[in-house]
Specification:
CATH architecture of the largest domain: Orthogonal Bundle
Number of helices: 26
Number of strands: 20
Shape: flat
CATH topology of the largest domain: Hypothetical protein af1432
Oligomer: single chain
Largest sheet: 6 strands, mixed
Number of domains: 6
Strand content: 15-25%
CATH superfamily of the largest domain: Hypothetical protein af1432
CATH class of the largest domain: Mainly Alpha
Amino acid sequence: MEDLAILNNDEQQEVLATVKKLQGLVAEVLNPDDFHKIKEILFRAVETEVLHRDQFGLNPILFDLQTAVITVEEIGLNRASIVSILLHDCVSIGLVKMEEVKREFGDDVANIIRGILRVQQLYAKNPSIETENFRDLLLSFAEDMRVIFIIIADRVNLMRQIKDKGNAEERTRVATEAAHLYAPLAHKLGLYLIKRELEDLSLKYLEPDVFYMIKEKLNETRAARDRYIANFIAPVEEKLQAAGMKFHIKGRTKSIHSIWQKMKKQRCKFEGIYDLFAIRVILDSEPAKEKQDCWQVFSIVTDMYRPNPKRLRDWLSVPKSNGYESLHITVMGPEGKWVEVQIRTERMDEIAEHGLAAHWRYKGVKDSGGKLEDWLEDIRSALENHTESDEQLVNRFKVDLYSDEVFVFTPKGDLFKLPKGATVLDFAFQIHTNVGAHCTGGKVNGKNVHIRTKLQSGDQVEILTSPKQLPKRDWLNIAITPKARAKIRQSLTEQEMQVSTFAKEALERKFKNKKIEPEESLMMRLIKRMGYKHVTEFYKAIAEEVLDVNTVIEQYLELQERDANPNAFSTEQRSADGYVVTVQDDHAQGNADVLVLDNNLKGVDYSLAKCCNPIYGDDVFGFVTINRGIKVHRQDCPNAALLKEKMSYRVLRARWAGKGSKQYPVTLHVVGHDDIGIVNNITSVINKEKNVMLRGISIQSSEDGLFSGTLTVMIDDQNQLTQLIKKLATVKGVKNVAR
């Protein structure tokens, strides 16, 4: 492949055509001599042979011209953005100095170029892109929102051209980034057409078999689909014309990526997707009558076709956070097929097609939402306020969304988000509990630092550890994240438990040396008598030599003597605190089930863990907690592996020994088609079951015709639960039932 960015004949013709097109698009917004200055700089780059083709063999001059056309045609950016796209490569390689850019084209262009280069530097660190964090960091590093639009346009251009270029590994990397990073960014900014194209192209490169299968199916059914749309639209058009409305109607097939997502979610074939298309009614309305006209169309359509009230989406009254306005309704069309109808005006359609950039040409968009959405609304308001100066407008573009968060990298490029003020110690615990527990310091951007060093966005942090290091109490004054502080407290408690264990063993050896067999109940009374509320405090006092072992033994013998000769100590009254009797709790007495722990121990104090809610018949084990007795977990509990690996010395064997009449609460997760009567059918099955009682139900519907929810039932045992799940799974419309 030719490495130099020399234009071949075909590329020369394409450059001339693209330049001509770009000039026609931006003639009104560019300064008279902008193109002349840019052309001189690019000719200089070609002559000095400093611009090179990328890994796909694409010519950078032609590529940037194509990207500039996309930003104008499909996003709506103007002069500063276009000039920045055409010059940023020359600035990056040092052919043009930033001072020259400021002098010839202005500060606004220089600021955008600086943002583009900063994002490129960030991206060179190769962080894990499959995270929401990376999108946030990209925004916080860009400073100017136009930079984000430009890199999205750049990626769209690249995705359109790499089909037969480069190697498969490079195409896969680019397509994966488009799916996980750029498509969600485009969606967040309301660039729906670009988002749709990026998703389809990503699927084309990542799963070509799936892409072409769906594409062929769509082509095969196109004629039938077109006929159906025409039959659906005809009576609607007649009614709207009779009402004197100005409009046009179009049918839109869902994107290939969207169809594939539905196939996976519903676990069905292409033929099982009923809503392959949507009908869009676009009105030519006066601004003051937009909502009134939309609701009038809604009334006409729903009078003709039966609507599904659960699928009404009113984004007229409250627009989406990115300004999207439309009215969506799903109705039952001919042949019993559900059809989605979108009702909007020309202005709303322009915003829906071109997202945030469309707001630069329209006014009056209301908004509410989270931090990012509020900031985007602030930008929209500023762009619509023509009274602001250029300097004020640029200041509004500054991204200051994440002033209370920092984003840092590991040496391998993995990205982590932490609250502002987080230290090296917080970051160590964020990576892994063991890393945090043995942290001795760190390296920030290659320099050795203390564990209390505060981190800044973009820092590359390496954690230094030592197996001899253990958490200290003063670490609680250094760490600020809840995770780190909780793990430090847990470690300190475990250290105290370990110390207590050693002290207990030392005390038992002393008793054995004196040929005394201590009684557990008598020992507990002694501990409370000596003023210790917890056993660990007592043994900690022995370990720290605050309490002498010989003193403990003397007082134990005295208490033993008092019990043996109560008349000799008749003035003493037995304390209620000292009266200890072991009884079965409500899980193991009366008609309750019996659980045997460890070495055939019955009647010990235990409770069922809330994290997995074990029931009679489940494979279970016991776990000795620090201050909440013994907790019983299922063997397949989400926490089981961690408990057994980290604290195996606290794990007890457990088994069910007898069945009483006790019932247990069990939560079931149910997913299915949102058909009429589905909930009644489910509850009817439960009500017919003997000794099964429904305690709670929570169901939510989604836009794709599915529902998901939870059922809480009272169950006798595991066998009864298995039978109930099997019966619920047979209910028509239910796709999955799981505990």
